[in-house]
């Protein structure tokens, strides 16, 4: 990895200084970034540089890079203060500088501001003098010999692996299992022995060689992970630190991408740590690179959070995946520090940021961090940094498990939902019909103790079959799974009325993550009042089909009484989201013509507005409800606000009107639909409306210009359109859905201009990326003896065959994606080849391949892999399904066939598709790394024919697949 090239700057010759100054002297810009413009021979000699160009390369042009990194902030501050107080001068400022050879010099700075003469074309500059001090200033002693050795031997240390990678364990708080490592460098030198990081990292930063170390650490992490994957050994995510200087010396993003790709690793195995102080000093380039890394699928962590004065500003301005709390919080483990840690962790979760606390050294610290929901822990209490094999052995000696890749998202989600609250809160892992508590807060434990349980006995009670607690819990768990909302139920335990609220947070690989709230409500006044209301209403039940209670504030609907009536399946239990549930009831059980009116009737705004205006405080309307035999009967719907109850509550009822059977025309009149039917044509219009909405036939009509005027509902659904607006005013050519538009255009012209009737015209069209075989019929539309347009319909031959051969295997469609399969692709190639041979219309074949499927299946299972394949198919349909035939040829390979179009058009589309597919970074919350290659062949290329176009594209795809580097160091 080579450092970035520095841009040259023109020399600056001072004009008002005496020649041969006997001390080091330089000129720099007065404005940021204070680039060095001139240096005399004495300064070059002091810094071990041969000329100005070498000096600029050494310090990256900037004066601030001359001085020790740890001195730069306070030196800049002192210079600024003196410039204000001494009228553009500063003097007697002590500093440590590092020469090009890595030597340490102790110097004193002085300088003055020189303003440019108007019209001279120059800029304001500083003239600066430097004096070397004979004695070291007051301050910590520096191991000069060690630093010189480090600077001069870093390349040798990397080449000979004197620098080794040590791994410190990171523990999942909820499970106690190992979930990752932090990689740390240790220099074990055969000549001078063990070097701690403090001995070599500052020296490498001062001499701007730190990027060599950081890149070596990344390479070693990736090399080791690749070797373990090849051997089938467990691999966990590893984080490593980047220096602030890396972002100015090299292209950090490209260096990481190239290294990870070279070792064929998923990006979610590599986490990048950047310190808070680095972000505070130079946020611009670092932030841009962090954003690129996150967009590519890497996790970016903010290290030492809370160690500086700008922590909240950094969170406000930057997006990170995880914060590592500075271990300084734990050194003084007081109540105040506990409150700060708890508040910080809770704030991070509300921002969607994961949490890790490092520096954990005692069981007390670990227990506290677990109680407040910190996601991960790191520190000597769990293991010191050591070589990887030793770290794994240490974890095994503690009887800790290893968290596999498929569980990272599951437990990250679990940690994220734990909040600081006084409500009784528990987190449950439900798998194999067993309940296991992952987390219980103090309030939940207190509720359990009030019911004479502890954690273990409560688990046992929930897992004991054929008990009321066991059955009720699983019944409402199933309801919560179906609704996707928090559900509430009640049960009696030894005379105590217990309220349970349960919510399914996530389901993965047979496990359900549940958030549970439990409360003993024996003396709960709200529940008693609800019971009283239920008793007072009981005598009314015989008059109604159903009675429901809607709570606006809680957003719930609860049945008080249900007769055998439609909707019982939807409104059987108390559920959240009452508006959506009533809408679902209307869509499923009300007459289609009444549904818009019902939607308006049952909206929250309508209820409140109309009830406020109603003198009786009640709202009435009538709708046709479908019974169990499919017939519609008129029902009266009533809504009324309940006085003297907590919050805003609404009682809704449904009852039979008792009307006799009505004629179709009368029902239309009473529902207000008759106004839409022309006079004298009500029956014909009604039949036409029903045919258009309910017929399975795909028919359409066009004007004399062959532009669509309308189509049946089945036609629109066939092409994936929600309304006719997508096609009205357009021709077939505008839609681009035929392999060959010519025959269809000629047929329609013959119908419109000559009154011909077309029957059984066979052809092909592309529907969402799949080539379909159709047979079409078309005939003229006459008005007053003149042809004003045409009407047509078609049958999908593939669908007809599928209906007739339900038990036979359909050979043209891929069952997983519903794209074409290999046989369908060959058929499409034959059709396009015919157009190429007969009508000179060239076409292109694109093959898209990927090598990541096996690893994804091994990591997450077949379900996630299938979801990924479906997602890729969906992306392909969206990007190319309008005018390309798309097939899934093998598990990991897709194909596109389309007209060639303009030169470069297919290549541009393919590149866009690849970028889009590689932008898929997660499936069902699980991180994935997708790499896609392509092979493109055009039918008009020399030597390409219908017989070899597929093989040619396949060969090109194979050549495009990246080969693993053969020279990876073993």
Keywords:
970 residues, alpha+beta, eight-stranded mixed barrel, six-stranded antiparallel β-sheet, 34 helices, 36 strands, 26% strand
Report on this structure.
With 970 residues, the protein is of the alpha+beta class. It is built from 34 helices and 36 strands. Strands 6-7-9-10-11-12-13-14 form an eight-stranded mixed barrel, surrounded by five helices. Strands 22-21-20-25-24-23 form a six-stranded antiparallel beta sheet, with helices on one face.
What is the residue-averaged pLDDT? 83
Q: Helix- and strand-based class? A: alpha+beta
Strand content: 25-35%
Largest sheet: 8 strands, mixed, barrel
Shape, principal axes of CA atoms:
globular
How many helix segments?
34
* Count of distinct strands: 36
Strand order of the largest sheet: 6-7-9-10-11-12-13-14
Helix content: 25-40%
The termini sit apart by: 20 Å
Poorly predicted residue ranges: 5-10, 135-142, 661-681, 963-970
Rg value: 37 Å
SSE diagram, text form:
Elements: E1 25-29, E2 36-39, H1 41-46, H2 52-59, H3 69-85, E3 89-98, E4 104-114, E5 125-132, H4 144-159, E6 163-172, E7 178-189, E8 193-195, H5 197-206, H6 210-231, E9 238-242, H7 246-249, H8 252-262, E10 270-275, H9 276-281, H10 283-296, E11 299-305, H11 311-317, E12 322-325, H12 328-331, H13 335-350, E13 354-357, H14 363-371, E14 376-377, H15 388-397, H16 408-416, E15 426-431, E16 434-440, H17 442-450, H18 455-462, H19 468-483, E17 487-493, E18 496-508, E19 511-520, H20 525-537, E20 546-551, E21 556-562, E22 575-576, H21 578-589, H22 595-601, H23 604-613, E23 618-626, E24 632-641, E25 649-656, H24 664-670, H25 682-694, E26 698-703, E27 708-711, H26 713-719, H27 732-735, H28 742-754, E28 758-767, E29 770-783, E30 786-796, H29 797-804, H30 822-839, E31 843-849, H31 853-860, H32 862-880, E32 885-890, E33 893-899, H33 905-918, E34 922-923, E35 926-927, E36 933-938, H34 949-960
Parallel strand pairs: 7-9, 9-10, 10-11, 11-12, 12-13, 13-14
Antiparallel strand pairs: 1-2, 1-5, 3-4, 4-5, 6-7, 6-14, 7-8, 15-16, 15-19, 17-18, 18-19, 20-21, 20-25, 21-22, 23-24, 24-25, 26-27, 26-30, 28-29, 29-30, 31-33, 31-36, 32-33, 34-35
Helix pairs in contact: 4-5, 6-8, 31-32, 32-33
